[in-house]
UniProtKB/TrEMBL annotation:
SUPFAM superfamilies registered for this protein in UniProt: Tryptophan synthase beta subunit-like PLP-dependent enzymes
Residue ranges occupied by any Tryptophan synthase beta chain-like PALP domain in the UniProt entry: 22-307
Family as reported in the entry's similarity comment: Belongs to the serine/threonine dehydratase family.
The name this protein goes by in its record: Threonine dehydratase
Keyword Lyase: yes
Cited CDD domains: Thr-dehyd (cd01562)
BP GO annotations: D-serine biosynthetic process
Organism of this sequence: Marivirga sericea
Signal sequence segment: none
Amino acid sequence: MLLQEIPKKDDILSAEKRIHNYVHRTPVFTSNQLNEILGVHVYFKCENLQKVGAFKMRGASNAILSLTKAQLKKGVATHSSGNHAQAVALTAKLAKIPAYIVMPHNAPEVKVEAVRRYGAEVIYCESNLNAREEMLNEVVEKTGASFIHPYDNYDVIAGQATCAKEMLEDTDHLKALFAPIGGGGLMAGTLLSSQYFGNKTPVIGAEPAGADDAYRSWKAGKIIPMEHPDTIADGLRTSVGERNFPIIQQYVKDIITVSDEEIIEAMRLIFNYLKLVVEPSGAVPFASMIKIKDQFKGKKVGVILCGGNIDLKKLPF
């Protein structure tokens, strides 16, 4: 995709207005104790406190609210392991339209239950991207619903960009901003907001070592799909999108990969010191920051806690 096609500053400002009544302006937290332990002033953008418990509400609502009335009437469909599914389901409920959600059979039960609670129809598939896309195509063909891609969609990217825009407005002089990379919607949006609204604050990508396709793709200069992801961070197991990758390639400062053990330790610190519930994917940016914290001694950095949907009976610590 050409970089000329990406969302512009006005697209993100329009998205912010469009979704204003559908999302929360989430708070930014910090912990003096944690800052002392790490030697870094860390500011956390708490998207785990967003509607549906994740940043996905931003992109999903912007994409759905950008559809025509004729499209809305037939409903929306998507494939997702959980957070985007919930966001599409809730936006559809608020817009009073049908929603059809394709989910892998091993998606966390807490996320499946939430999707059903919002009134969407859940259709199960195998746990790989090909299976998701094949089932999704069948659903779209049968229902005529509009496909709201979880990340490879410019309206979704523009919606996700509002997260970093808010954080940059609510903090000052950040030396870096850490965001996760799964499909790349939040990362692409974060990079664009940094360019347009944040004086080009360096953005560092965070990825599980067991699903490191974005890191490998970035190094290779071309997309290398993730075929067999193996990580506790279920929300980041997907491959980086075609519309997202050129933005990442152009603007990302670095991509740091972390082990499941490092992710779990980051979760534990967040639970202990911030008293916040985060899912494994939500802790990946913090784990990445901890890994290179010596680069930021005494400086301010931002970390996006992208989600908090976890089964508390299955905490990894």
